[in-house]
Design brief:
heterodimer; A: alpha+beta; eight-stranded antiparallel sheet; 8 strands; 26% helix; globular; B: mainly alpha; 25% helix
């Protein structure tokens, strides 16, 4: 490995979490911290050692969050926030999921949202039979300027067409309704 | 200063030998 002074430090240390659905265990017990990274080099070492998103089985999640924030609504740094949610069609798992998830990770570790990057808590990938989902979580759903800036940049980075709409939902709304019913607070 | 990296810069490191 190169000496530490030649590594490229990230602005934040990020923790990768893995969730594997085991109904015999409590939700929190199925959530495992995989590793933490704080350099560009560490990030790629991690990425090259884990399964691609498209190879995970249904019910599994990946989450990449800033160190110190747990990937759940209840964390004090998430609970007033929300998420930009992209729901994928089933066939996109094999055509686009890996590209979209990697792009999401690069947006996070590269601090792509200018000064609003500090609003970002992390990102979550859900592998589901009905259709996979990718979301970027931010810490304050009422911060309209920050949330909209993040949404616009994120949509552009994903290469989504102008016709594709992605929505932002406050966790407080998602927690009290099923996902499909939670209303969009913002759209881009 | 803030450590911001664009996607091309980050992708350049993907297959560097030190990362494998």
């Amino acid at each position: 490995a190169p000496p530490a002074e030649q590594l490229h430090p990230l602005q934040n240390r990020w923790a990768l979490w893995f969730f594997k659905n085991d109904r015999s265990r409590a939700w929190h017990d199925n959530l495992q911290l995989v590793t933490k990274v704080d350099t560009v080099e560490d990030f790629w070492a991690m990425y090259s050692h884990i399964q691609l998103a498209s190879k995970l089985s249904s019910g599994c999640d990946y989450a990449l969050f800033k160190d110190g924030i747990e990937p759940m609504w209840e964390d004090s740094r998430n609970k007033r926030g929300g998420r930009w949610l992209m729901s994928l069609a089933k066939q996109q798992r094999h055509s686009e999921l890996d590209r979209l998830w990697l792009e999401t990770l690069l947006c996070l570790i590269g601090e792509s949202f200018e000064e609003h990057s500090r609003e970002v808590c992390g990102a979550v990938l859900n592998i589901r039979t009905k259709g996979d989902k990718i979301a970027v979580w931010t810490r304050e759903a009422e911060n309209q300027t920050g949330v909209l800036h993040i949404g616009r940049v994120y949509k552009e980075r994903l290469g989504l067409s102008a016709k594709t709409i992605i929505g932002y939902q406050a966790h407080a709304d998602t927690a009290t309704k099923s996902n499909s019913l939670a209303k969009n607070k913002f759209v881009v | 200063g803030k450590k911001q990296y664009d996607r091309e810069f980050l992708l350049d490191f993907q297959f560097m030998p030190a990362c494998i």
